[in-house]
Amino acid sequence: MKKLSFFVYLNLAVSIAFCFLSLSFHLDISLAAFPLAAVFTVALAYVVCVLLLKKDKIKLLNTVRRLYQYQPFVYLTAFVLQRAGKKGSSYEVDLAAVIVWIAVAVTSLVILHYLNEKRVYTLKKEWEKEHKATPVVKFHGAKRVVFEALEWIDALVQAIYDIVLINIFLFQLYEIPSESMVPEFLVKDRVAVFKTLSGPKFPLSDVGLPYVRKYDRGDIVVLRNPHYKNDRKSEVKTFVSSFVYMATLTLVKMNKDENGELKADPLVKRLVGLPGEQLMMMDGSLYARTKDSAQFTKVTDDEKWAAWDLNTLPANEKKKIEWIPLTSAEVQDTLDIEAERRSLDLQSAALECDDLVRRFKQYAKGGTASADDVKNLFTAEDMYVYDLIKNNSERTIKLLTAAGGAEWFETFMNSWKKNLLKYSSYQEKDGVLTGDGLVGGDLYTDSNFRLDVMAKLIFGRMVVRNAELIASQGAQTQTADDEILAQKAKKLTYYILRLDQRNMPIFPANDSNGEACYIPENCYFMMGDNRYNSTDMRHSYEQKLVSLTPYDEDAVLYPSNMAPQFVSRSLVLGKASYRFWPLDRAGVPGKGMKK
Does residue 25 lie within any of the structural domains? Predict the structure, then answer.
């Protein structure tokens, strides 16, 4: 009996300490934390210390057990409430509250051990006598229904809190919401993520278990989406929705953004970039370099999981995929455009631009105009590569008839030549990228510059051909060569539109002095396997028209959401360790990687 009394009063002491740590002086929801903890503590103290220990009312044993079972959950709720306010609490207060909460949880478990039905009546002779003399009460009719209902509610509430604690500190189940990780994961696949080694934290605080796990390239991880706000209000909303999500075993999702759309949070992505690396993606291949190696070297492992052509998958897998971004023909078009870009002779391109300008001037009838009128002939948005190519006929007519049309065409076709030096072509040997005199100093910038030149050449050829047809007044007709030109224009346009999925600039970007920067310690870079259908750490959620290259003041524009970012270890919830649904695809992710 002395041991029970000791732990009861020890539990009471740490409970009182927790109450004081729950005090808040802010006029918001955090004010509710102290009353909740205090009222529960007073009720617990009265029922246990007064009615049970002093007055021996053993009829209340079930009530006492329930109180101690709920105690950690009630205090956890108070812990969350206090931190759900506008300002939260300091790390020191959070740490103290967590330590006290653990003490409460441990002492309550010890007390429940002593209050177990098999040993509680051996603690005191009076309790044993009264227990034997007290008949078991059995409910009937409506009372029995109410009693059973309360028992089910009690079991459900405790189960929910147990699930939440398990999900926070041990493992959690997730449902795959999109096809960004095809073919590794399909929509509605369910995976188990083990969290204990990944430094899980108490809700709305930075206090928790230490980070033990070190992640490797190729690990599939679940992470908080860094694209969303990380302020206290959003964190509270995320926790509440996560609580419901965990309590319903992933069935109910209510974490929505300001537009009422379900948030893509958390994300499931592949870890491809490690601390100390600088990355670049060219023609679908990932490259990396470190402080110890100045050259970008191909990350060959990335080719095992990067999915660029879903058409090559087995038929039984393809039929489960909702959307295949590119056909086999479009995949080949992509490779053809890249090959043409790499072999582009800029000196020859410059000569062709001169020839196109000369030929166009033969047909232009609009006369000259002031420099401002020439510049304003088309808006910046008119340089959107899709509209530029698609509306080439209308642009041709305007250039032929408007004052300054020929001057605009000459400026547009030749503006890129201001930076023309003796540029080398793309070079790659044994996975190492090299090249002297590249535009911008790196292959990504150089390749975009070349794409800009290619787009101008295509547009120039189409405009001159349109001018020839118009001038012939029907004497000439469309030829097979014209169709070939149109198809090349279409292929190039769609390649540029998909550019942000195919390539990525140097990341982290070099500093203002041109010195390489690297992914910081305890940070990582992630992408989805299905690269053409993954908005990941390469991208933002906002798209805007940007110049294809900063080395041409009249460059064509393309829609871009390129905004690469690394992810702090603190946002990584854990490693996707096992796919448990559907049963026919159950297993450890990654085992089926292509070789």
Answer: yes
pLDDT in tens, 192-243: 999 999 999 998 899 999 999 999 999 999 999 998 877 777 777 777 777 7
**Alpha carbons 507 and 296: distance in angstroms, whole number:** 12
How buried is 435 (Cβ within 10 angstroms: 0-12 exposed, 13-18 middle, 19+ buried)? middle
* Residue 337 is assigned to a structural domain of this protein: no
114 in helix, strand or coil? helix
Confidence of residue 516 (pLDDT cuts 50, 70, 90): very high
Mean pLDDT confidence for 434-462:
89
pTM for this structure?
Answer: 0.87
Residue 594's pLDDT band (cuts 50, 70, 90): very low
**Residue 368 CA: distances (Å) to CA of 361, 402, 405, 471:** 11, 9, 8, 20
> Is 257:394 a contact under the CB 8 Å cutoff?
no
The verdict on residue 39 lying in a domain is yes
Least confidently predicted of 253-267, 328-342, 427-441, 564-578? 427-441
Specify whether the CB–CB gap between 359 and 469 falls below 8 A: no
Q: Where are the alpha helices (DSSP H) in 271-327?
A: 302-305, 315-318
Structural domain of residue 128, as residue ranges? Answer: 2-137
For residue 425, the surrounding DSSP H or E stretch is none
pLDDT digits (tens, 9 = 90+) for 456-482: 999 999 999 999 999 998 778 888 889
The answer to whether residue 327 scores a pLDDT higher than 60 is yes
Q: What is the mean pLDDT of residues 514-530?
A: 96
DSSP-derived secondary structure for 387-412: HHHHTHHHHHHHHHHSTTHHHHHHHH
Whole-angstrom Cα distance, residue 211 to residue 365? 72
Q: CA 263 → CA 55, 190, 205, 531, 539, distances in Å? A: 55, 18, 22, 20, 16
Q: Pick the closest to residue 468 from 387, 525, 552, 393 (CA basis).
A: 393
- Which residues lie closer than 8 Å to 508 by C-beta, 6 or more apart? 278, 517, 518, 519, 564, 566
Task: Report the C-alpha gap between 422 and 305 in whole angstroms.
Answer: 38
Let me know: does 340 contact 453? Beta carbons within 8 Å.
Answer: no
Tokens of 467: 């001018």
Euclidean distance between CA atoms 151 and 405, whole angstroms = 84
SS (HEC) of 218-255: CCEEEECCCCCCCCHHHHHHHHHHHHHHHHCCCCCCCC
- Which pairs with CB-CB distance under 8 Å and at least 24 residues apart come from 75-79? 75/15, 75/18, 75/37, 75/40, 75/101, 75/104, 76/101, 76/161, 76/165, 76/203, 77/36, 78/18, 78/22, 78/33, 78/34, 78/36, 78/37, 79/22, 79/33, 79/202, 79/203, 79/205
Q: Is residue 219 part of a domain?
A: no
How many distinct structural domains can be found in the chain? 1
DSSP per position, 483-512: HHHHHHHHHHHHHHHTHHHH-EEEESPP-T
Per-residue pLDDT at 590: 74
